[in-house]
Amino acid sequence: MMIQSILALGVASILLLSGCGGGGSGAPSFALGGTVAGLASGGQLVLLSGAGTQVTLAANGNFRFPDRLAQDSKYSLSVHQQPAGQTCTVSNGSDSVGIKADALNITVVCADNRAVLGGTVSGLPVGMSVTIANGGQSTVTVSANGPYTLPVRPAPGTPYAVAVTSQPQGAACAISNATGTAATDRVSNIDVVCSLARVPIGGDLVGLASGQQVRLKLSGSGVPSSEPSIALNLNGSFSFGSGITYGGDYLVAVDTQPAGQTCTLSNASGTGVTVAVTQVRVSCALNRHALGGSATGLVAVAGGQPLVLRNGNDSLTVSANGSFRFPTLLADGTGYSVTVGSQPTGQTCSVFNDSATTVTGPVSNVIAQCLSFVWRTRLIAGSGLAGNMDGIGAAARFSAPSAAALGPAGDLFVTDFSSSRIRAVTMPFGAVSTLAGTAVPGLINHVMPLLASFRAPAGVAVDAAGNVFVADSGNHVIRRIAAGSGEVTTWAGSGVAGYANGTGAAAQFNGPRGLAIDASGNLYVADTGNHVIRRIAPVAANGANAAAGAVTLWAGTPGTRGRADGASATFNGPSGLAVAPQGQIYVADTQNHLIRVVAPGGVVSTVAGSGTPGAQDGTGALAGFSLPTAVVVDAQANLFVADSGNHTLRHLQLVGAVGTVLTIAGSGNTGYREGVGAAALFDQPTGLALDSAGNLLVTEGGGHRIRSVYRSPN
């Protein structure tokens, strides 16, 4: 009995020692465990200790690891495998100091997985915010660009619809990938892109004519540089397609005006715009143009009648020279016709550039030219019948007289083209004699001028010493009739048609028709067949032993027809020449129907004429000529033209580089009649000379006469 009691006491002691964490002489050890909560039915969780021991849990409640930990051991517990569809977290799962007792306070809490909804915000202006929400359950306000996350996670299988619920002021934010069904993973592509808002710009259009179009352009700091202009075809409201950036500046301008109208703008600009602009006003109106010009030659007479000009019912009194302007403007697309309503006392005024059928801009070139005299004509010599009879006045006969030039003593020298003679007319009596030529065409030089011969002489000029130079057209040479002796010599040219520069017979011409001499003695030749102007330099010697200087090209392109101006100019059959006091050479460019001028350096420009046959008076290219053959110029740079094809004489007044042309005598019809201005008739006036009194001396190639056109008081 005593032995049994002793054994029971020994077993109890062993059990007691075992319950205190140790047995026998072994070190103390402690249990590791805790509780699991939230584990879904059927779920399975695997925990892992730091020693590598795993425990698998399939239900909520208490758990322990099978291994015990020695005293002062450190432990770290983690989830090795999450249950399907859940995420479990561990609390109190580690001890870095060392275990001293059982660690049974570890808690593992499991929860169903929920999706994280989010994305990236970009383009949000500084200082602004945007509010993003998933329905009414989860909301976040974002104030800077970058990633965002909605605070509430939806359960798996739950639909979501994310939207911008509050836009930033002055900007617009758009969302992408906004809808879907929540899973168990993260959704990070619900992106929000913001940009400054666009403010509409527009207004209304009034006054645009039917069938017209105006284009408007929008620009400014808030407008893309690529913004196209807009075309408006109808009156009414309009707007620009994309407007401007919120807070930007704008400027509306007319890019293209409608034909015949001018559109103006009001309320066309603004800065810092934050609300729609609808008040831009575009007002279009028909263009209206001034009608005016200038008056010349007007002489005021005390108590006299002034000049009155009319354009339809619009009248204008012009009392002085200078510019004028009608009081009524012309509507775009209409015409005008300016006439003399009443002439000033003691004068006759003519209007040039007087009309147009369609006006598209201001008119300032109407010219009212007033004269205190009229141009009258009278016969000097010639019967009107072709012949070569000497005599006085109408008793004399010519045969197609072509050119005329005055000598130092006032005598008139005439090339009698068809009789091949050079005639002299004593002025003012009209006594005609033969200076040189036999009336038989040829090329004979002779000390006795009446034994010399010419062939179709067409041009004549006289130098200060009285030497007469003849463009012997049919012989292609320049001849000289010496002053005093009358000896006829060939001055330049070989007698064979061609083109060559040189001295004397080394030079060649082709049908020369016009001559003129400048103050230095240079002789200019219209080399008609070669379409150029030539110059023959003077020589110091004079008299019987004189010789021509070198022949050179002065202007034009040899052998080339044309009407080009400039240093490489072209002519077309030039004939008449005249030297101005300043040294310019005026040219009757016959086949081009133009009056040209050659500057002292050889540069050519066009003074007047359209380049096609015509008879209209006007300025520059508005004037028309028909085969002008002769030109003379007075000391005041007034030009006079023998307009052979029109059977008229024209006056050309220079205004700058161009001339205003007025018909002073002849009606445009061929015939013979003395009279005033257009009452006179001519038959192919071909040559001109100007006497010291300013009277014109005219050779009539078709009428076989020499006429005078002179000024007579009104």
Fold and architecture overview:
With 714 residues, the protein is mostly beta strands. The chain has one helix and 66 strands. A five-stranded antiparallel sheet has the order 41-45-44-43-42, with no helix packed on it. The chain has a five-stranded antiparallel sheet with strand order 50-54-53-52-51, with no helix packed on it. Strand 46 (457-462) and strand 47 form a beta hairpin. The longest helix is centred in the first third of the chain and has 18 residues, at 2-19. It is elongated and about 170 Å long. Mean pLDDT is 91; it is low at 1-25.
pLDDT averaged over residues: 91
| Poorly predicted runs | 1-25
State Rg: 57 Å
Secondary structure: number of strands: 66
Number of DSSP helical runs: 1
Structural class: mainly beta
How do the strands line up in the largest sheet? 41-45-44-43-42
Distance between the termini: 185 Å
Largest sheet: 5 strands, antiparallel
> In percent, how much strand structure appears in the residues?
over 45%
Question: What would the keywords be for this entry?
Answer:
714 residues, mainly beta, five-stranded antiparallel β-sheet, 1 helix, 66 strands, 3% helix, 46% strand, elongated
Brief summary of the model shown:
By secondary structure, this protein is mostly beta strands. The chain contains one helix and 66 strands.
Helix/strand layout:
Elements: H1 2-19, E1 29-30, E2 32-37, E3 45-48, E4 54-57, E5 61-64, E6 69-70, E7 75-76, E8 78-81, E9 86-91, E10 94-95, E11 103-112, E12 118-122, E13 130-134, E14 138-142, E15 146-149, E16 159-166, E17 171-175, E18 179-181, E19 192-196, E20 198-199, E21 201-206, E22 214-219, E23 230-232, E24 236-239, E25 244-245, E26 250-256, E27 261-266, E28 269-270, E29 277-286, E30 288-289, E31 291-296, E32 307-311, E33 314-318, E34 322-325, E35 330-331, E36 336-342, E37 348-352, E38 355-356, E39 363-371, E40 373-381, E41 391-392, E42 401-406, E43 412-416, E44 421-426, E45 431-436, E46 457-462, E47 468-472, E48 477-481, E49 488-492, E50 502-503, E51 514-517, E52 523-527, E53 532-536, E54 550-556, E55 574-579, E56 585-589, E57 594-598, E58 604-608, E59 618-619, E60 628-633, E61 638-643, E62 648-655, E63 658-665, E64 685-690, E65 696-700, E66 705-713
Parallel strand pairs: 2-11, 12-19, 21-29, 31-39
Antiparallel strand pairs: 1-6, 2-5, 3-4, 3-8, 7-10, 9-11, 12-15, 13-14, 13-16, 16-18, 17-19, 20-25, 21-24, 22-23, 22-26, 26-28, 27-29, 30-35, 31-34, 32-33, 32-36, 36-38, 37-39, 40-66, 41-45, 42-43, 43-44, 44-45, 46-47, 47-48, 48-49, 50-54, 51-52, 52-53, 53-54, 55-56, 56-57, 57-58, 59-63, 60-61, ...
